[in-house]
Fold each of these.
Amino acid sequence: AQTIALVVAAGSGSRMGGDLPKQYRQLAGKSVLAHAIDHLAAAGVGHIQVVIGPDQEALYHAAVGDHDLPSPILGGALRQHSVRRGLDMLASQGGAGNVLIHDAARPFLPKEVVARLLTALTTSQAAAPVLAIADTLARAGAALGDAVPRDGLVRVQTPQAFHFEAILDAHRRWQSGEATDDAQVARAAGLEVAAVPGDAILEKLTYEEDFVRAEARLATHLT
Ligand code: CTP
Ligand code: MG
């Protein structure tokens, strides 16, 4: 089945701060968004559609340079609104077999993760990359709260892979408030989401320190 990547880049990056939303910042001479796009293309995804904020057209064009991509779709105030608008627009253009929904704020993407996701889609309607949690978890506070058992918990990354019609339908039915990813939207609609191994390098850039670490990694050619 044909696979489309929907890359959401409409956020403002409030936790990272700085002059530009993080996905439009330069990381070793290339925007974070362009890194994400290049990795998807290298993993064999031929159709890549980006969703941007209504006021981000100039930033988008500066960030993607001469990449030959379809015009960006305008997103919404919450991530799930941005995804929903992207899926609706793709549906109006005929949809796809599979869709990979990905955060623009993740500049590194091993192609093996994409392969695992697409393999999982041959037997499942949905799949997401997950990682175990190594640190102790505890309730936050100026004085540390109780530890929370980490047994049975995982961190969930993107890209997340779906049969297109299934996730479109799930997003149209979602009404439970804010969703930080699409696997939870899928599950709310009753879809089973296969868990495949994620990768530490796929980490989302959220805080300034994440950006600094990504720069250091590129400077030492560890990717
Ligand atoms: N995103 C989006 N539309 C929104 C909010 C987020 O397309 N209304 C995108 C972001 O651009 C990012 C991804 O969803 O690529 C993951 O979101 P997050 O890391 O939370 O980014 P921001 O929302 O921009 O950052 P913050 O929450 O710190 O403001
Ligand atoms: Mg956010």
Amino acid sequence: MNPASSSYDERGIKGMFKKILFALDFSESSEHAFNYAYAMSRNFNARLIILHVIQEPIDLSGFYVPHISFEKLEKEIEEGAQKMMEAFCEKMDKDFTNYETEIISGIPYEEILGKAVKEDVSLIVMGTHGRKGIDHFLFGSTAERVVRSARCPVMTVRLS
Ligand code: AMP
């Protein structure tokens, strides 16, 4: 960005958001947050990347579950996630095509941060449950972890 002495328009504010990463876990809170990602994408004409992370289970393969059934289970989970993503995208306006989807396996906050760097996004949008007390202690917060380490701005939307 240009020095602070220039006007806001000269500083390229209009083109500020070129790519927006939206983290989708299919919960009510992330679906609510999507309204903001969608509005930002449309208003700034920014490419929208919708990312879902399949939480990596503890590696059970070879221990309790025969290898072959573990692979089958993984495949079914991937197919299920893909179907949910398709159903989610169906709800968007048909004239909106400036988006792409991705499903990856891993630890959600790590994958969200990694994708943001890889795609050099200008903004991450995500929901938050706003867990407190013991719930927060036990489950932590994906949003909090992303906010703490992201190199770009993060918009968190709490379902009130
Ligand atoms: P929190 O309530 O702080 O744990 O954050 C929940 C938010 O993190 C969700 O609304 C999503 O935006 C994001 N998130 C959590 N899990 C996933 C996941 N598996 N894939 C993509 N985004 C996720």
Amino acid sequence: MPDFKRILLAVDFSRDSDFIGARAIELAQACGARLVLLHVVVDLKSQWYKRILLSSLSDDVEEQLIDDARKRLEALTQNLGVSDATCVVEVGSPKAGVLKAVEEHDIDLIVVGSHGVGGVDAMLGSTADSILHRSPIDVFVVRLPGRGVAQE
Ligand code: AMP
């Protein structure tokens, strides 16, 4: 087992978050690593057409989403029994948020689910796929039961 010191668990609060979290905890315990839980609040105004549609969206709404995400991450640490884990909220695209957190928190392993809230029945969800393509460090992808298994 490689000597991972800081493991990043990326969660989108889909129903599988507890399952993915349990795997991350097993890994962290096996190598004595610290856990960092991350949620990325998707920046709704980052694309021009959404900016027009959402022009009335106030900055308060974004603040509210960040605050809500922080509370949900803290609740997840309680559920998973890892109340000493660090909780981080980023704003932007999930891929950019994960890569930023990797750098800022000196992470050496990323744990993601094979599929999240938006997952279609492909082999991998688009967030998991983009993180795998761009990550400078190892990525552990938790296979979710019954999702995206290739047929012979
Ligand atoms: P997806 O590829 O979007 O189906 O999601 C796959 C996995 O990427 C999820 O199970 C999470 O581990 C991670 N993920 C997706 N969206 C986010 C997000 N907004 N913040 C943090 N992690 C995310």
Amino acid sequence: LMLENALRRAIERDELSLHYQPQLRADDGRLTGCEALVRWLHPEMGAVMPAQFIPVAEDSGLIVPLGEWVLRQACRQQAAWARAGLGGLMVAVNISALQFRRADFTGAVTRILAETGADPAWIELEITESALMQPSTELHERLVALGRMGLTLALDDFGTGYSSLAYLKRLPISRLKIDRSFVKDLPGDQEDAAVASATLSLGRDLGLEVVAEGVEQPEQFAWLQARGCAKMQGYLFARPMPADEFARWAAAHD
Ligand code: G
Ligand code: G
Ligand code: MN
Ligand code: NA
């Protein structure tokens, strides 16, 4: 409860910020975009990590205002980068299942896009596989509507849920993100290698781009690249960084 109250105040008092982690094309190493990750700097507790406060936010319903804050901030950043000549970078935003499942989600996204002037063509929504576990017509139509608005949709934490493959084929999504837990012990761990391989061949068969996250070792990169993984994200390339640092990193990278 203490953390919950502190988090409520954090949203009001501007203690949250976004860090951005580069995503690179596997074949030529070009920067294609980034994932926005929320950070909380509490005046006394110091840095509180999302693994601690996202679950609290989900249990208390605070994830809704927090998620909107994150999306608004990421959209503002996309618009600012475009004005500064750093356009052409996809900005991916994590959407919690609770947020996505609310009837007014599409409305909130529409409002935030209008308010910030962000270009939906450069905004990607990362929706967890678990958010789509009980696919209803309503949720399916929500994805279709978001896609029609020009947003890119990615399935995050892929492999941790149990998506029906038949359903996956019909989903209006364009990317799969292999969960970090399956990348961590590549290429040695046979089970993880099987999950990663299966995801890559599924992506190929269904025409979905596959992104690997949590790439830390050159051996993991080589293994994934050899199997056709299109994009990579991880400490091997760069850590999540504040916006200004990300812009400098991007300029130096190209
Ligand atoms: O950045 P870090 O590795 O600490 O993130 C830990 C977890 O918190 C990850 O599962 C990540 O998806 C989640 N997370 C980070 N930022 C956000 C956010 O803005 N919204 C939501 N819903 N989850 C986030
Ligand atoms: O669940 P989600 O995919 O959104 O989680 C992304 C999280 O993974 C972020 O919290 C980010 O800080 C973390 N992350 C990104 N790259 C790496 C990496 O190479 N190694 C580890 N251990 N964590 C990473
Ligand atoms: Mn993510
Ligand atoms: Na993930």
